[in-house]
């Protein structure tokens, strides 16, 4: 078995990679645009001014339509809910309550007291200090804690002799004289004891002392909770807005309604763009045309839905016009469509507006993979033999609460048992046979079995699936039968095969025990096998082989038939440790097995495997941060990525590309061709937020089931803003993946310390290294170091002791050598 070494090469562009900011509006532009707003939206800006960031204000003023502005308002309060950890518009309701109080009680929204009350809420204590013999009207506010200032915050407001409104006292500017009343001269003395001379004088004295003590930071009290600048820019990117500086792009649109979809009709917009008006993005002489599409559908003047698409065409395409096809399922009604097309390479664009009069249409069921699977399941319903099937689940990463639905046919099923990872979790004794299962927060491979039970409590049939198994492009699976404790006679065997892109299937061999019963060459892979009634326990085995590919091993799947009782799967888990020994900064070759000592939770273990591997084929993934903060460095990131693959990828290697902004997605599937990788890099550009932790989980997930030596390259500025997985969850997943992670940082000095600490911990926990450089030209040296390490490693393996139970806690591993530094994974989950 080849070693499983994955690398996370983190190209941290944080030094100069700040968020791609849109140029702020000038004061004159703001005034002009504000004056043109309808009354309700001008009032919205006035009401929320204390908590409206400059970036949000400019974004709101750039919007063209009332429908867009209403969407902005909803999104504005959604961001406040996220910042406060609330839901269901609680932030909006809370602010509205504060606003009403401010308008009734203070001098206005933008008065000192009004602003602070709207930002910080009601003070825990509010004291009116009445001491007219010495002081003008004074008010003391107390907050137990203000996040941007600290604890026990005490504010002093005063109403100057010549003013009608209260101001926050500034000891640097106002001094004590500003607090003195007109009558103090008639007293001919200053107060000597505030507690004795004035009612609430003690509170006044405490406020004076605090304001002097905290004068350098006290005015942060006006600061509203920060919002994501990338999130605000996303609003503009997802709105149909004309750029006055953009070149005019020509296009023509055709509208059709080809089919129904339940209660909706497919509204199909086909837009033809002249190829001659577009420019390409090129990476290492591989060119790609890219067109961004932003769309809005309005009904009765209100936003019905919004959408965004990205279309990529190869640079050598010869069509005079490139077709952009957009399908929107809409209920029969009248709508207005607004679509903006942009060529990001030249910033040429066009906005197309059309009326959509959507008719009622009959439904047509598309032939998707899921529908084909469901059709196969339904075909079983005509059989009298009892069958039980699990409804297909997503092949992507699965976590959290998921509903397991089943379909049954035939007779004799009295109950259904649900098993998770070989443990029975529930029994359903009447339809519908379904169950909600919690897969946990961190995605990992989980086995789900459903077993049909007859009236005597005996298993008669069932199904089994495994989720979170990765995206390995070459797999075979016996779909049915899956669980067959009692089976004989003619049996339909269904097989599912996944073939890598660009490869051809040589065939699928089906065996009953050791006898080959059929070789299948084309789908559907279905074969009837006669299961002997007297032979007892047996097994079905499917073996798939690729055509003209000696480097890829055949894959197989086995299903046990007629087992005497429900069998529990026992995994004999070999723990593999991809290990590098560094002396004087370079990997050391030629060590023997006796040079290594391995400790499992402090106890020595015997090695069951020892290999010194060199020049193994690599399976490399690259995940590129395409969030807004990468905008100024995307060109550098593309070039760095291309240089890495050009230097590292050899014959027999393969790679894939993931882009991630607010979520990760595949832009190039596994491919051995450099031109495919370059094309994928050319498609990438920066926008939206940063889901770094999600990208690490998703990218590592793609390696599950992939054989050989693996490397993951992550290009990012390191600042996560929107991931659904936390850092700790991502770290646990990386631990379970048991692969070394390497990080390269460019311009790391200006990156925040918290991010650097987390990245260093990630690479340390998984047995990797961190490289921090200042210039892209230094990458070639780093690439050479990493390649040398990848292609020259030791693989140590051992079996945990009998006392180590599957599913138990994290176990720490230590590898020792007489000389040098050892790099390997820190531990494993049994």
Indicate the topology.
Blueprint: E1 8-12, H1 27-35, H2 39-48, H3 54-62, H4 66-84, H5 90-105, H6 112-120, E2 125-129, E3 138-146, E4 150-158, E5 167-168, H7 184-187, H8 194-197, H9 201-213, H10 229-237, E6 247-248, E7 252-256, E8 260-261, E9 264-274, E10 280-283, E11 286-299, E12 302-314, E13 321-330, E14 333-343, E15 348-358, H11 369-379, E16 387-390, E17 401-409, E18 415-420, E19 423-428, E20 434-438, E21 446-453, E22 459-467, E23 475-480, E24 489-498, E25 505-512, E26 515-520, E27 525-531, E28 538-546, E29 555-561, E30 575-583, E31 586-587, E32 596-600, E33 603-604, E34 609-614, E35 618-625, H12 634-648, E36 654-660, E37 664-671, H13 674-682, H14 692-701, E38 709-716, H15 727-737, E39 743-746, H16 753-765, E40 770-773, H17 779-790, E41 792-798, E42 811-817, E43 821-823, E44 827-828
Parallel strand pairs: 1-38, 1-39, 6-15, 35-36, 35-38, 39-40
Antiparallel strand pairs: 2-3, 3-4, 4-5, 7-9, 8-9, 9-13, 10-11, 11-12, 11-14, 14-15, 16-17, 17-20, 18-19, 18-21, 21-22, 23-24, 24-27, 25-26, 25-28, 28-29, 30-31, 30-41, 30-43, 32-33, 32-42, 34-41, 36-37, 42-44
Helix pairs in contact: 3-10, 5-6, 12-13, 12-17, 14-15
